Amino acid sequence: MVMKVVKALDEEKVEQEKASENKTGYVRLKRFHFIMLLFVVVFLSAGITTFALAFGKDKVVSVGPDRSEFKKFYDAYDTLNNGYYKKVDQQKLINGAINGMVTSLDDPYSDYMSSDEAKNFKSTISSSFEGIGAEIQEKDGHILIVSPIKGSPAEKAGLKPNDMILAVDGKSLQGMSSTQAVTLIRGKKGTKVELTIQRAGSDTPVKTSIIRDTIPIETVYGEMVGDGIAKVQITSFSSNTSKELVTTLNDLQKKGMKGLVLDLRQNPGGLLDQAITISSMFVPKGKVIVKEQDRDGKIKEVYSQNSGSPDLPLVVLIDSGSASASEITAAALKESAGVPLVGEKSFGKGTVQTTADFSDGSDLKYTIAKWLTPDGNWIHKKGIKPDVEVSLPDYASLPIINPDKPLSLSSSSADVISAQKMLKALGYDPGREDGFFDEKTKEAVMAFEKAQNLPEDGVLKGDSTLKLMEQIRDKIKTNDTQLQKAVEVLKTRMK
Known about the structure:
Elements: H1 2-24, H2 31-55, H3 71-83, H4 90-103, E1 111-113, H5 115-126, E2 129-131, E3 134-139, E4 142-148, H6 153-156, E5 164-168, E6 171-172, H7 178-185, E7 192-198, E8 206-211, E9 213-215, E10 220-226, E11 229-234, H8 241-254, E12 259-263, H9 272-280, E13 288-293, E14 299-303, E15 314-318, H10 325-337, E16 341-343, E17 351-357, E18 363-372, E19 388-389, H11 414-425, H12 439-451, H13 462-478, H14 481-494
Parallel strand pairs: 11-12, 12-15, 15-16, 16-19
Antiparallel strand pairs: 1-18, 2-9, 3-4, 4-5, 5-6, 5-7, 7-8, 10-11, 13-14, 13-18, 17-18
Helix pairs in contact: 5-7, 9-10, 11-13
């Protein structure tokens, strides 16, 4: 976009110069003389270039005296372009050089994106897209899940924040950027992708197949949870999130909302302006929402414009999947409005990115500033610690089970351990949790299958495995210890 504006200004300047020349008469050549002069110039230029290519030792690409720092780059480019044993793709060389520059920054949030990758990146912010629905990031050469999107195939498959994606359809992601990984993971609705996942605390990778789907653009979900308390979950900060929130809050107010739990758990962030607008709904006018610090240390403060009610009793839920814009919102509400935070320490992303668009559709995403909390804290790689720390039950962090791998009598594996713990959490006692599938475990599986109207063969595979993980997700929702504590804290503020 920046380049297009510059190009348009240059073209306008040229037109103005032409008009000036015609008007003053300073540049006037007869048509025949002009054509002959042009022919001579082209002929001489072609001859000089041909001679240089055939006999000269100088490089084809010249470096202007004001950009001498690029001489080494041009030398390397010409060396490969002219001397490599196979013909090279010149555009690929240039893209590789840009990638190399960005990689040297050692910043997982700065990235060069091809036109396809740029298109995918923009679609996650402004519209629906097709894929598995998970925010990912590159860290230390690995691809990690920041957070699955609510209701997405990734969430339904049991993916969790900090799960490491080792491979996609058997292709290793080691050393890839997040945008390169996204290109492999995304695909058309209805198609299958196999991810190799390793969960923190588990030594055994697990393969899981996920059917891609359309990821909805809705980012705000509200409901009344009793006693005049509403819960609103924001899943990401997209272009229409603030408008969705206003609509949702107005609807909940009609239903008798007297207090609010704002759920920012597993929210990977998004647009900074949306975080500022949403924070302004609850932070008193004139108070600081966020501070931006540039490369020179200069700090710009962004203040609340307050278009809502800061008097509504409020509690905010965060966890390890709350990142970026959701952390900006949580910090603003905590430090500028005295709103308590409940849950677990947040992810810890304290930088701001922007993009530069190139004419071929590719993009350069790069970090332009740090963001600081209203009190001047930089939470990067540290996260925000909640006022009230509460964890979910142990079964909420169990590794996923590969539904394509049957678990049956005499099996012994990490998957069996997960299955036994899930069965026990659901009330089907397997007798043991050491990973050995014995007769008692088989009986527990058969009891579960009977309750779910599944074939009672005592083997966990396919539908029975998926149903088991689905039941665990439902139990986590009904036994949401973090939400329960948030409601408890909120009631004390509503008195």
